[in-house]
Amino acid sequence: MKTILIVDDRPINREYLMTLLGYRPEFRLLEARGGAEALQVARTGPLDLVITDILMPNMDGYEFVHQLRADSMLQHIPVVFCTAHYLEREALALAHSCGVAHFLFKPIEPQTVYDIVDAALSMSVIPAMPEAQDSKEFDREHLRLVTDKLADKSDALRAVNQKLNAMIDLNLQLEIEADLKKLLARFCEAARDIIGAKSSVLGILHPEENQLLHFYTTGLSAAEAAQVKPLAPDGGALGRLLAQRHCVRFMELKKQPQHIGLDLRQLPVTSLLGTSIATPQTIYGWLCLLDKIGGSEFSDDDERLANILASQLGRIYENHRLLAEARDYSTALEREIVERLHIGVRLQESETQLTGIIASAMDAIISVDENQRIILFNHAAETIFGCPPATAIGQPLDIFIPKKYHQAHRQHIEKFRQSQVTKRVMNNLGEIYGLRYDGEEFPVEASISQSGLHGKKIFTVILRDISARQKAEKALQLSESRSRQIIESDMMGIIFCNKEETIVDANQEFLNMIGFEREALSAGLLNWERLTPPQFRHLDQQAFHDLAANGKCAPYEKEIYRKDGSRLPILIGGTILENYNDVKIAFVLDISKLKSLEQQLNQAQKMEAVGRLAGGVAHDFNNLLTAIIGYSQIVLLRTDKQDPRRPEIQEVLKAGERAADLTKQLLAFSRHQVLQPRVLNLNQVVSDTEKLLQRILGEDIDIKVSLKADLPNIKADPGQMSQVIINLCVNARDAMPDGGKLILETDTMEVNEAYISAHQQLPPGDYVVLMISDNGCGMDKETISHIFELFFTTKGPDQGTGLGLATVYGIVKQSGGHLWVYSEPNYGTTFKIFLPIIFEGVEIETTSQMSEQELKGSETLLLVEDEEMLRVLACKILETCGYTVLVATNGQEAWEIHQRYSEPIDLLLTDVIMPQMNGRELVAALGIERPTMKIIYMSGYTDNTNIAQDLLKENVKFIQKPFQPENLARLVRQSLNEPQRSAVVH
């Protein structure tokens, strides 16, 4: 077995020879990284052959062989020089002078290696070392070869450095150049200089129409440039280049046909290098370099560099995205500069410039090795990920990728590694996310490139944090969605007008308002002036003036025409949309319902004012009528039946009673009457009233009654409900002077929003409905608007008081109900009364008759009344019945009597409304001191009928003024006969 030592400072060269010779089982292989290490290995054991590089650091191959031959123990070992030095003759001479007979010149064919190794091993005589006098000549020759080699290396590095500086200078200039034409012209010139061509041609195509947009030449005279024209934007070899993205290279163009895509027949061009200007998504054009300076053809390195430059221009052309391409190439340049730092200061300056570009980049730039370990982490990456570079360097890239994306990331990297693509935008993979050092995920845009260093892949990723942009986009989408929802909502009409006042757009709500279809809008048929009645156009002119002066106008009311010619009242306000050719936007609100409600409110306020007046009049009348009726009955009781004055007194009593009926109607209209409602069935009220109607209405009125079975109950005053029915029926009879039909119906109805919208405003819910219809003369709309007004009548003089329907209105409203009327002249009238359903059982009212003796008593009563006539009358009535009566003119005086009177007071009879202290306040005060005292309230009118209704809810006794003496005496006796209360609290 032969032992062979391989000496080379480059691992890849040693690995190649070790692998190649390792296939020969008769060889035992050793390796060393330099001459000094090789001498140590040689001295440790026998060697049969040494294969060594010539130029190595510290101790090169010549020095190594020189020392090897000087050692008597090692001088017999044959040596083979392996070198890439192009000075082959000088190297051979120097090698023979130091005893080396065999050479391997790089690149080396495997069979050549085997042949040279076998020849060296079969040598029987090793060449002798030079004589001492030749040693100096050997050293001089040795030094000259080393110096020549270093000079070659320095020239090559200087050329590389010049290209790097030119690339950096081009990047900086293109970064700040905003004029596209200057940018393309500058690039065309710089590409020629960097690659080393005599001239260059640049063509940019329209991405969609495939037309030539820009065409530049450099290095040609004006006459030559005029002759160079593209034959077709997508024809020939350049057309295939655009389709396939492959570079094209031509030698001896004079022998090539003219299908390359450029007319070069008039130019002495010998070689051409063409590449596409493109991004990963789009091809924009091509770059052609003509005639390589210092050579007959363009090299692979030239092709690679041309590809990079063209790719950079593609990025710049597509929204000036040159920075991303520059970072990719700068990263590769930076790694190359790092490898050459020991060569010189100028390369170090280039590295500093590139590092500055990377450090100042706004996007994160991260480079990883084949094991996905981070080797570069710029300042922007530190800012975005929240991790200092010292911590990030050496860490796996996975620490900045959410765990759920690890597997997909590895698969993508592996696929990218195996492909021939050098760069790729990763956003086509869908949404990708980064992971900050604190664990927060955020969306990113990314591109990746791969390059090689010492035979190993380096991957560089450029990342951009788009969380703020996505948030802004989502906010914009939300804003647009909200704006669209507002515009398309049915809350109000929205229109857009141009300077000619033509409506150019509108939402569906506005079109519904005016009754037009969207086709009329699209055809430009809707003009604001034509939609406006003449009397409102001055308001529009003022609004337009305000818009021009202030950019907005205050809302104002007007009317517009609908398609059917009717008018629609609206409220409109507007503003001007800036940056949209002064388009006006207006917001239109349909106020027809509001106007209707306003009219209803005015009518209700008018009715309320008249009602308050009527109530006040009724109050004074009740006090007077109570005295008239009371004293008339007392006089009648004391007058003999044969007394000739008795009929006159009876007429006075009848007149008082008729006047009392009128005051009741006034109170009913004003809703100041104190009702005593109870749960009842309206069918029973209609049935009881039906018996009286035929006698009241006459035989020429045909009465039909239709009652709904199982009708729910309501809560109302039965007497007042009978009054409502009688008043409506009498009114219907007067509308049918020649006879007719009268229909009374009961039913139930669920009032919902749809019904309310179509008919009237009343609370939704379940109602019992009383319908009274006639086929009489009917009424017009003007008459209907006044029928519930006090004293309004269409009857002749002395034929009506105008209180009938006003009384109906007051009773129904005070009972919590609602009225609806429909009528047309000559077609009759229908009244509907809606009363809320009460889910309680019917209350049975019982009355008991008392004899004159049973009405008497001996208890003590406290009478409180501020009206003197009523106070005297009530006192006489009660004293006539045998009671002891304590009299007070107001609540304060009654309180003082209570304090002075130590005996029991069995019953308090008090007015409700009095000065200083009203009845309820008096009862509340006395109830604590005298808890067993019975209470009776009396009133003819209250400013707040809720007080009286609350009294009835408290189940206390109440008597309505005017009252008859017998009724007062009976109520007092009934109250005193009731069981004692445990307490009275008000």
Number of helices: 32
| Shape call | elongated
Strand coverage percent: 15-25%
**How big is the Rg?**
58 Å
In which range does the helix fraction lie?
40-55%
> What would you call the quaternary organization?
single chain
Spans where pLDDT lies below 50 across 5 or more residues: 321-326, 668-672, 942-946, 982-986
Biggest sheet details:
6 strands, antiparallel
Determine the structural class based on helices, strands and strand pairing.
Answer: alpha/beta
- The averaged pLDDT comes out at 78
The N- and C-terminal alpha carbons lie at a distance of 129 Å
Strands, total number: 33
Descriptive notes:
By secondary structure, the chain is α/β, with parallel strands linked by helices. The strands form seven sheets. Strands 11, 12, 13, 14, 15 and 16 form a six-stranded antiparallel sheet that branches. Helix 3 links the parallel strand 3 (49-53) and strand 4 (79-83). The longest helix is centred in the middle third of the chain and has 47 residues, at 592-638. The chain starts with a strand and ends in a 9-residue tail after the last helix. The relative contact order is 0.04. Mean pLDDT is 78; it is low at 321-326, 668-672, 942-946 and 982-986.
